[in-house]
Specification:
Layout: E1 3-5, H1 13-22, E2 28-30, H2 45-56, E3 63-66, H3 78-98, E4 105-108, E5 111-112, H4 118-138, E6 144-148, E7 156-157, H5 161-170, E8 177-182, H6 183-188, H7 196-209, E9 215-220, E10 222-223, E11 234-235, H8 243-252, E12 261-263, H9 270-283
Parallel strand pairs: 1-12, 2-3, 3-4, 4-6, 6-8, 8-9, 9-12
Antiparallel strand pairs: 5-7, 10-11
Helix pairs in contact: 1-2, 3-4, 4-5
Length: 285
């Protein structure tokens, strides 16, 4: 079973590897910079080598990088839109350097339309990704972009599988575009993940809308709010509205059980991460 969580890079990238190893993880997710600022982070050659050597000494694979929360590829504000495209390209370049020895994955929230409407916002995201993909091709970069489904809170887009499918089709179904499925987001967007019938229906819809091979990772998060509430607030496994039965079915489901599972549950200390990881391991049959 590939089980991991989001790990802090405080003190250096290699510290994230050490934290993941201490938690007994065999996959992980990190930010490659401060996710709440536009300021870029450039790593020295030595920092990159130290990180890569630390990874080579472990069985932590794959490593996922989550893009900054400020990036909005649907923004109707042209200044923010262009700034987001530029920042996302920097995220890709950084991921390429940090994970040059292994396949690299960069997870991003599609964007928020900020009142401009869903149709316009989805088109905006598609056009931004086409621009980004052209740059990736010209620079011969191989990082895979993973679009993460959202809860649909506010004006966020990508909360239905059909919206994600629209974006992928619009940009020509490129091989380096995939999907990250977040359980909390899916649940509060209206996908019932509490029992077998709901989970089978959810996965069947995902399979109908999107090439199954594009699903690369699952964010395992319980939800503080109920089904179809359109609120994005993660909870500890089994302490939210999805519940232990739902997660037991998910982590043992034949169609997804071999995918990497990444927890983004609330964290006040490493003990919180360890407790949630242990719960998932116990649920795995």
């Amino acid at each position: 079973m590939k089980i991991g969580c989001h790990v802090s890079i405080a003190g250096g990238l290699e510290k994230a590897v050490a934290r993941a190893k201490k938690l007994g993880l065999n996959t992980m997710q990190i930010f490659s910079k401060n996710s709440l600022t536009w300021q870029e982070r450039y790593y020295t050659k030595r920092e990159i080598i130290v990180f890569q050597k630390a990874l080579q000494k472990t069985e932590i694979y794959p490593v996922f990088i989550h893009a900054s929360y400020l990036i909005n590829l649907a923004s109707p504000d042209e200044k923010i839109y262009q700034k987001s495209i530029k920042a996302f390209l920097e995220e890709i370049k950084r991921a390429e350097k940090l994970l040059s020895l292994v396949p690299s994955y960069l997870i991003v929230h599609p964007g928020t339309h900020r009142g401009s409407g869903e149709e316009y916002g989805l088109l905006r995201i598609s056009e931004a990704l086409m621009t980004i993909l052209e740059q990736i091709s010209s620079l011969k970069l191989s990082t895979m972009i993973l679009l993460e489904n959202t809860s649909g809170s506010g004006s966020s887009l990508g909360y239905t599988f059909s919206q994600l499918a629209y974006i992928i089709r619009k940009i020509g179904c490129p091989e380096n575009i995939g999907i990250c499925l977040d359980t909390c987001h899916a649940f509060t967007a209206g996908y019932n993940l509490t029992d077998e019938k709901g989970i089978e229906g959810t996965l069947a819809e995902l399979r109908r809308e999107i090439n199954w091979n594009k699903l690369k990772v699952i964010h395992l998060n319980d939800s503080k709010y109920p089904l179809n509430s359109r609120k994005d607030r993660h909870m500890h496994i089994g302490e939210g509205f999805i519940g232990l039965e739902g997660f037991s079915i998910l982590v043992n489901h034949q169609a997804i059980k071999d995918l990497p599972f990444i927890l983004e549950t609330p964290r006040r200390s490493e003990e919180d991460d360890q407790r949630n990881i242990n719960i998932i391991k116990r649920l795995r049959k």
